[in-house]
Amino acid sequence: MNGRWSGFNIVSVVVGFTFLYLPIVLLVIYSFNASRLVTVWGGFSTQWYGEMLRNEALLAAASVTFRVALVSATAATVLGTLAAVALTRFMRFRGRLLFSGMVFAPLVMPEVITGLSLLLLFIAIDLDRTIVTVMLAHTTFSMCFVAVVVQSRLVTFDRSLEEAAQDLGCPPLKAFLTVTLPVIAPAVIAGWMLAFTLSLDDLVIASFTSGSGATTLPMRIYSQVRLGVTPEINAVCTVLIALVTTGVVAASILNKRSMVRRERAERMAFDER
């Protein structure tokens, strides 16, 4: 094969990307529409962003969303990192297969099943559905993504650095915190950003696990869209798209820089040998 793209491949890629991203582009464009009719262009205007900032219901939902995302992303990062360490450092222990399956199950589990399962759990233990239950639910389904990111970095980590620190009298926990954690920090931060963005745009799981006073922004948007799309909703969705895109791009850049630094260090170590 000569590596050149055929006309069919080019057309397929163009059609695929157009199908995926053209609706998003149109949504962003019409968020700056001066007309109240979302399908009729009335000129450029930023008035709907001002209306968005004056909408108390949307601001309250945004506050709930960001609080849930911050807490759940932090908890998921801690738990996901610990799970990645356990799966990487302890290759053989009783129940390892079951443990790894439970950690990574939310990756392939439909969100409807996850949300319904958590709802039944909260009902069984008689736990009222509040913002706390939404945080617990988001921590549960985003922890596996953190574990995948951190585990991929730990697999290639040179444990001789940590062992050298322990040989010099450093306790295992301190050696991990002072030697290993700074090295894998880009992967941990990338995992946190990924968990944060996943929590921001979740609708299905939050719908099952939220109660009164715990309405998230995606839930608020969905409830308003059912009554009709307004330019104000377009403005909110544009802000969400910008936040999610920024988080995903930042996580990708951190992972890329971590890989480049690791490859550079490996080349330097090889040259020294």
3D architecture notes:
The chain is mainly α and 273 residues long. The protein has a single domain, classed as MetI-like (MetI-like fold), CATH 1.10.3720.10. 78% of the residues lie in helices and 0% in strands. α3 (56-89) runs antiparallel to α8 (172-200). It is globular and about 70 Å long.
Summarize the structure.
With about 270 residues, this protein is mainly alpha-helical. It is about 80% helix and about 0% strand. The protein has a single domain, classed as MetI-like fold (Orthogonal Bundle).
* CATH H-level superfamily title: MetI-like
CATH architecture descriptor name: Orthogonal Bundle
Q: Beta-strand level of the residues, as a percent range? A: under 5%
Using only C-alpha atoms, the radius of gyration works out to: 23 Å
CATH class: Mainly Alpha
Kindly report the oligomeric state of this protein: single chain
Q: In terms of per-residue confidence, which ranges show pLDDT below 50 for 5 or more consecutive residues? A: none
The averaged pLDDT comes out at 83
Outline, from the CA principal axes? globular
Supply the helix-strand structural class.
mainly alpha
Main sheet summary: none
The structural domain count equals 1
Count the helices. How many? 11
How many β-strand stretches? 0
Give the N-to-C terminal Cα separation.
38 Å
The third-level CATH topology is MetI-like fold
Question: What sequence of helices (H) and strands (E) makes up the elements?
Answer: HHHHHHHHHHH
